[in-house]
């Protein structure tokens, strides 16, 4: 189930089940979105991205869905494995006169149960 | 892609001291970004460092507290000055995809982070 921890929301899933991590973004001008995975003691690593002219993109075991109407992004992980345990961040990006801006979501901790 | 090395990876510091974090990139990049990640929280941009000019700081961050150097296109440093326990965080160096940076359409690559604990 999903619960709110001290800081990070936590999603606990059984190994082998599918995981869905959600993210709400704020800027309707954002045109590029990225999901990052951050394992303990490491920096964030790119998982998958999607541009605003798409509503779905698939990678290996991961799918990102974009709903611009409600400014919502989701990451689906198929057949979740213990190695998927990490904190997942969404990032929205938009451009202004100064260049590309990245805004990170609050993060969700995914815990995979054996 | 870009490979980013940060030093130190972690340190324990005394209140009132300063620490400089180094970031080395394996490609030449125009902009380098410094982020702070407080315990259990998301990433907050501190400043953007361009080679040959002063860094641009985000709201809530000032040069006196977080001086930044950017002597060339592959290296930057962030100093956390006059540290207090509230500065205990992970500090992350980041760059855009060197091949896409000019197009402003690429992802960010991150270093492994420098975890500072201030006593």
Provide a descriptive summary of the structure in words:
The complex is a heterodimer of chains A (114) and B (119). With 114 residues, chain A is mostly beta strands. Chain A starts with a strand and ends with a strand. In chain A, 0% of the residues lie in helices and 59% in strands. Chain A contains no helices and 11 strands. In chain A, the strands form 2 sheets. In chain A, strands 1, 2, 4, 5, 9, 10 and 11 form a 7-stranded mixed sheet that branches. In chain A, strands 3-8-7-6 form a 4-stranded antiparallel sheet, with no helix packed on it. Chain B has 119 residues and is an all-beta fold. Chain B starts with a strand and ends with a strand. Chain A binds chain B through residues 5-8, 32, 34, 36, 41-46, 49, 89, 91, 95, 98-100, 102, 104-107, and chain B through 4, 31, 33, 39-45, 56, 92, 96, 104-113, 115.
Annotate the secondary structure layout.
The complex is a heterodimer of chains A (114) and B (119).
Chain A: E1 2-4, E2 9-14, E3 19-24, E4 32-38, E5 45-51, E6 56-58, E7 62-67, E8 72-77, E9 86-96, E10 99-104, E11 108-113
Parallel strand pairs in A: 2-11
Antiparallel strand pairs in A: 1-2, 3-8, 4-5, 4-9, 6-7, 7-8, 9-10, 9-11
Chain B: E1 4-7, E2 10-13, E3 19-25, E4 31-37, E5 43-50, E6 56-57, E7 68-72, E8 75-80, E9 89-96, E10 108-110, E11 114-118
